[in-house]
Amino acid sequence: MKEKKLMMSSSFNVFGVGISFVVMCILCNSAIDSLPELSPQKYFSTLQPGKASLAYFCHSDSSGTTVFLEELNKAVKPLQDYGISVAKVNCVKEETSRYCGKEKDLMKAYLFRSNILLREFPTDALFDVNAIVAHVLFALLFNEVKYITTWEDLQNIDNALKGKANIVFSYVRAIGTPEHRAIMEAAFVYGNTYQFVLTTEIAVLESIGTEDIEYAHLYFFHCKAVLDLTQQCKRTLMAQSLTTLNIHQFIKTMEAPLLTEVAEDPQQVSTVHLQLGLPLVFLVSQQATHEADRRTAEWVAWRLLGKAGVLLLLRDSLEESIPQHANVAFKREEGRRVEYLVLHDIDSVISHVENNMHVEQIQHEDDDLEEPDMDMQDDEVEETVYRDRKRQLPLELIVELTEETFNTTVMTSDSIVLFYAGWQAVSMAFMQSYIDVAIKLKGMSSMLLTRINCADWSYVCIKQNVTEFPVIKMYKDGKNPVYYAGMLGTKDLLKFIYLNRISCPVIIPSVQEAEEYLSGELYKDLLSYSSVSVLGLFSPTMTTEKEYFTEAGSYLKGCVIIAIYSEEDVLILSNRYAVSLPALLLVRHKEGKIEAVPLANTHTQDIVQIITDASLETFPEITVETLPTYLRLQKPLLILFSDGSISIQYRKAVLMLIKEKHLDSFTPCWLNLQNTPVGKEILQSYFDVLPPLPLLVLVDLHSGGHVFAFPADQAVTEQNLLLWLKKLEAGLESHITILPAEEWKPPLPAYDFLGMMEAAASQHPTRKAPECTKEVDVQENSKGQKEDKSAIRKEPTETLRIKHWNKSGWLKEAEKSFLHDNKEL
Amino acid sequence: MGLSARAPRWGAPGLLLAIALHPALCTPASASLPPARRDYCVLGAGPAGLQMAYFLQRARRDYAVFERAARPGSFFTRFPRHRKLISINKRYTGKANAEFNLRHDWNSLLSHDPGLLFRHYSGAYFPDASDMVRYLGDFADRLGLHVLYNTTVEHITLDKDRQAWNGHYFILTDHKGQVYQCSVLFVATGLSLPNQVDFPGSEYVEGYESVSVDPKDFVGQNVLILGRGNSAFETAENILGVTNFVHMLSRSRVRLSWATHYVGDLRAINNGLLDTYQLKSLDGLLESDLTDLAIVKDRQGKFHVTLKLFLEETNQSADAIPLPQDDNDNFAMRVAYDRVIRCLGWNFNFSIFNKSLRLSSGGEFSKKYPLVRPSYESKGSRGLFVLGTASHSVDYRKSAGGFIHGFRYTARAVHRLLEWRHHGVAWPSTECPITQLTASIIRRVNEASGLYQMFGVLADIVLLKENATAFEYLEEFPMQMLAQLETVTGRQARHGLFVINMEYGRNFSGPDKDVFFYDRSVGHTEDAWQSNFLHPVIYYYRHLPTEQEVRFRPADWPLPRPTAIHHIVEDFLTDWTAPLGHILPLRRFLENCLDTDLRSFYAESCFFFALTRQKLPPFCQHGYLRTQGLVGTERLRQHRVASGLLRTSPAAGRRPGEGRRQPGHPKPTRHFLTPGPPGQPHDSNKEEL
Fold this sequence. Notes:
Chain B: Its cofactor is FAD. Chain A is of the alpha/beta class.
């Protein structure tokens, strides 16, 4: 936790001044403001009219109160800020006072105003500095802060103040807690403006519907604006933890106008919200809809009260142009660029704000809970492999190779080798699929499945040119190994192994066998792994052409079934399929079609391209495994989402459109949620409510990321589809969403070790490191800045971490002048 | 002195001196033979010379090694005198990784032949020096290295020639008058001259190189040893049991290698005398500057220690020379010694180098080494490289460059520099997609022996490609040459770089430091920067530092101030593969330097991103989009669901999804603010109260 805070220092520069002030003051004042020790007589002579004073009477020889005195000493400075003096009065024998008491152990602290006793406190009530400050202010602000115990009390105050004043209502677990102190300090400042109401009764809190009563709560009751006595005051719950700074901030935002109308460039606009570190939300309006927009904006403003400032931006009277479609502008902080957004409803606006709030705003009682935990695994592969670490994998199915056995194994048997690193999660995740392959192939294949752990045998891996993990290679017939470039999963690797049973290309010896091959008889068992079978036809003299083809074959090894026929009687085949030599025949077994492609002057790469293109289907089912192949086409995807197989009617409609070439600029496909359950999550990201299926969606990934949906109320017919596509083309259809174009940024920050090292180094003035002193996060414009900086540096890191976060004193500094000038008790 | 790995020398010191006395007698004029030309000449067939020869041989370069003895490694035929090498020969580590095992094998040279590992030559943890001689002989023979034995190079001069690679040739003349013309000269002659301190009476002192090693010769004697290095302690150890006492005298206090982490300091294996001293067994250690001393011999042939000062004042006969105890009757060394032995280390022999080579002594720390740059090239003449023990000025008292387990790597680095300089072969590197960066670094810090042994001197470098989509990985580059990286390696460093170094905690090592203090180890990742034991440190620079920045870097920093730094927390097992403790923080560091997301994803997640976002994380781009996605099994899928990890990007964070709409009712987007459509939450009072 501690370092995390340091590292994020740049993100809360809003408070920079305040924080450094605090550090400075803690350091310089603690020495000066020590507890004065006076005799009773002397003490009473110092009491001034109208001034409050807290005195602790004790016998000079009493011993057991040192802890209390320490706390009292700490309270000197904060109480002084409120104009309250503190003293320790020594009861000497010569001059007794009635406050001195009789027994040594029953010493008490007394609060006087002028020279009138207001309250007496047993020392155990003043258990720490927070309790001291809270109790003293509580006693002094008796009228400003009403203490209540029942719901009726609250109702009465509520009713009494309707139309007159607003209420700050708070619940604390106990008197004297830090939260109580924070409320009292706020009441000191705002007590004249608002009625403060305090309770320690859980029942009161429950009565206003709060469920989570473990923590302190603070509500702002908007009663001033309520004129109708039967109406309830609106209430706003403060989301942050109860610290003086947070309360101050919260009240400031309550005071700010609910909604502001602006007609200037949002970049230039600034309100109190930005100063408090809250974002601004501009809702774009125009003259025509102004009234309605204003109502909506007010609604949004109420919901975002305390979280963001809401403004209505009049587009018509704006000189600068803002993006055409944008209806919301979002300004995260001063100096940041304004983001323009297209959001479709109020909830989106609210959630956008809530999710983009300043990290520091999301502070609760327990910071640890809210802080993103950098030590938490957020890599799904690492996490899943880690979760599975205790399971014994049946690794015995896979031959483990070593430096000694590697060469002989791959030379003497056809083998697949998995190069992996035992510590690498991706390798180990794949290992599980690899074991599944081994289980499926058990006793069925001559291919030996092996693995080599590069964490143990790094030299072997380097020799085999393996620099990444995992890598899969096939060593066959003593030839150069074939690098497996398919999906790292059971299905695709199995396909690769099966298809590699036959050579690529297979040399067909006779026309008869060629026909068997074309009919699918020859490699019946392999047909399901290859969407097409390819037969190259060459006359025996076409050596270069054959070479190209063979090369293409080796390139496509393990992906498609490829054969070659090049006997003297090849003309029989070329005539039969009406194609001139050289040529290739593409067989789509599923559709029972044979297509002939002439190959004159076609080089290896082109042949590869022809075959890869041919293995794409016209209306494929896209799955996790097949999508990348279709994405390569760089066309918008026209996806028919379906829960199960698609009906013939849909298929027909789409196929017809394909046939008529209406869909040439798209990749039509369908997605079966049964086979690809993640499709549901995708739909959820497009729509709020899962629409009825089947549903046709157009996803334009490559230009703009617009997503369009075919109207649910229309029947999927050829005509309707065509009409819809026409409207799309003409720009008449509106998209349902735009896919976010965000870059993939680091999910969480890293430890700022450099900052920590330099902070530590700067503690030792003897060690000079002038080049590497890091600017401590302090903003300019403060007089005490220099001392401040050096003060921070002298602090040991440990305390620095804490002090950096001791924000609660900020208010005192910020309001100091106000306090002393206007409100002395 | 530490004899763990002293490189060879030119025979016995006495002979060398003789050669040095008459270099002019063997000028090329007397040679009738035409000069033999070599691209590379290596002086000395000790460990460093042979190591360089190996790399030259593998690269098929034109080279020759000159060795005055008949076999390699002749230094080890006599030294260390007590025959025990203090470089460890750890044969078992529990690991199969050969590279890792080199971290604990301090005697082997680098080669591709696993048969040429020292563990096949000795079973002893601290092996016998004659095994080293045998090993070096085998190394030269089995690899067929071109060594000219029995060839004493007596004189080296410089011959300017514009055609030459370096603007001059090195002209070597051997004892037969044969002349060799070399384009590049490697000096791997070790430290061959015993260090002698001149003071009155130094003639009575016996040298480590010649003193008897038979304990019988010391029975019942009072012995004074000058020096406090490993050779001094080794000598003491040998005779502790038979002498009356051994006193050890040196200028500074003893430095224990386990406190300094410097293997040249006193090793625990030799520190028996510390034990007997502290256990009041008459032996003892004393500190004094030797140059202030004088030794006088009395009539009984015994030696008395006195001060040089006293000798100068008086000019009297031996008996009348004042002794410190005359005034100060409890003077520590007031006893008479039977023997005084000098064990003061070794110096480089400069005598065969002509002045034109400007091979000067006087490194930063000591005059015993020739002055070289961090690239091991002489500051005086281009093309002259110092290898092996003699090159230790670069990291004297810091790292292992003076010992076999260190200089075997620096020799390789020098070879790689020259491959680029003279043959256009760029520094070897592997290029990988950025998604492999974490794994590449983890792999190296867990096994690389050069990084581990030559910590603070050799560092791995990651050079980023444009847009940080890929990187090149360079191993074991001399990190002080960082500013010149582009010119000396032939690699581009335009888009930022990482430097991977191994470091001890900054204030952990040092003489007199208590390295066993409580709480010395750091376990929490956020405290990694306070790690004390050797641990990986990664520096990130947006731009290659300049020479100025390297030279004027902050004190105590091995490199200039980086843009960011990462410490991988120290590990008791030196196994930095813990998913949460080591890999995760490293990934976060790299991500934040590169401003990208380096997480790995299953194909299903990539599929989801491909259809719901315009951009994909690098892992999906490099894998999934190129049909190499990680599919995973059902079991892992269930773990994923159980883990609750959402398929979100950091920016999207906890965003439940924006701008979602029911299909079929597209609304004019510009005016959604107009209230009216159903579902707008006018009735939701929950937040309002």
